[in-house]
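Notebook entry, structure prediction.
Reason for the run: the old model in the group folder had no record of what sequence produced it. Starting over properly, with the input documented here first.
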Amino acid sequence: MLINILKNNKVTIRLGLIVSVAGIILLFSCQDVIKVDLNNTSPQTVIEGSINNLSDTVIIALSKTTDYFNPQSITPITDAQVSISDTAGNTYQPTLTTHGFYYFYQLKGIPQNTYTLKVQANGATYSASSKMPDMVSIDSLKIIKSDDGDRENVLACYIKDPAGVKNYYRLRVFMNGTLLTSKDSIEPISVLSDKYFDGRFTPLRMPSRRFGIDYFLPGDTLKVQLMSIDLITYNYLRELRSITSTGRLTSTSTPDNPDNNISNGALGYFAAWSISEKTLIVK
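New structure, fully documented this time:
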């Protein structure tokens, strides 16, 4: 989920996680923030990828960016050596490589396993590790009224949070097969911890207006993905949400980039998360 360069001195974030065949996410660890000179920066390696328990395809996207105000400055890295290893000592190589995308087939994530990505590109070596949390299942979905008593326009995702375990979640919503985004076509980042509902049966609320929709209408098919994420992914996404909501990436000053788990100064993310899904047809 990285930095997508626009003209007119505006910078925005390319959100989304590469879960199966899509691109993504996602991690701020309360360490020093990376600063980037937008006017004339040296080449930056960008690594984006994730692994989950539902899809058996993992996609790692590699690119290189130089001048942040030149859209043509982002170029794919096509000649890297990329591998993924797991807790059991298995090492996987990409089956297909095209235009900077490295595809690993028959690689489905297993909760509690740690996955390590290694990339050799541009004369440097980068690595990142992420432990996949246990999956927390969605109990049910329901459309409820907003707190102000308006028409029913809140999607509630009910879960039973495991007691005594620090859990971190991300929510994604699809309507009629399409990922919901805000009016500016940016996916809202919905992340939360169980700090205030540890061990409780609780609804996780997503107002329709968060996606630029007045109401969820009868006949709409809503699918929710509840993603159990690790702490570093949670912190990364929170910082990314803060950056986009405060406009720090649309000013002419040098923005802060969310810290991540990738070594050697690369931008981007590598995450392992477990996913629970449930579908509701609005009545």
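Summary: Residues 3-133+229-275 form one domain.
The old model has been moved to the deprecated folder.
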